[in-house]
Amino acid sequence: LSYGLSIKEFLSGAFNCNIEGKVFGGVSAKYFQKGVTDLAVGNGVNADLGLLYIPNEYWSIGLAQKNVLGAAGPINWDTGARDELTSYTTLGLGYAINQAWKILTDYDFSFSNKRMGLFHVGTEYRLDSYLTLRCGWEQINNAVSDKPYDHITAGLSLRLGGLSVDYAYQPYYGMTEDTTQYISFGYIFGAEQLTIYSADATDEGGQNVK
Fold it and tell me: DSSP string covering 49-88, please?
């Protein structure tokens, strides 16, 4: 469950300066439930905090602190065991080549060194106002080595008004039986349908438009 809002005015007043571009802040509350059939079930809560800075139409910079509750928000198993969710930081950078094509990268790291640093790189291309395609490369923790394991990911999004359906394909360690497929649903209140114009699109007056 997430909530975000513009905090540019707040930061400008707090630091007595004029910040160019847009600044947003957000928080996500998370509930976890894990289970192994006929063996054990665990659940827990935690939260994320984030900042997003958009200086212009091309660049965006993000900073997020994941699992801010740390040890105070573990996954508690009905066997009595506890899995602590490590708090870590994600720093991200995005660049929009044009209105339809974006390239993004981020890096996960932990100040406590409880989690190895991991890179993620991806790109998305919006074919039209309804369909977006994605692919990427990412690193994940390697349970048997101090070097991360990397693989290719893919996905797509379908958007109708404020309603969105997202699909992602994520293999693990090269084993097909561990491949995970994610399907998520979202709704943005007050959202307008995005429109993508072709390079030679013209307005009613015959002028080229972006």
Answer: EEEEEE-SSSEEEEEEEESTTGGGSPEEETTS-EE----E
Report pLDDT digits (tens) over 81-136: 888 888 899 999 999 999 899 999 999 998 877 778 899 999 999 998 899 999 99
130 vs 164: CA distance, rounded Å: 9
Long-range contacts of the stretch 132-137 (C-beta < 8 A, 24+): 132/156, 132/157, 132/159, 134/168
Beta bridge partners of 60: 94
Alpha-carbon gap, residue 141 to 16, rounded angstroms: 42
**Spatial separation of the C-alpha atoms in residues 148 and 134, rounded to whole Å:** 22
b/e map of 81-117 (b: 16 or more CB within 10 Å)? eeeebebbebebebebeeebebebbbebeeeeeebbe
CA separation for the pair 115, 143 (Å, rounded): 11
C-alpha 123/C-alpha 105 separation (Å) is 9
Contact between 189 and 164 (Cβ < 8 Å): no
* Calpha distance 17→120 (Å, rounded): 33
What confidence score (pLDDT) does residue 208 get? 43
Q: Is 209's pLDDT higher than 80? A: no
Residues 41 and 75: their CA atoms lie apart, in Å, by: 10
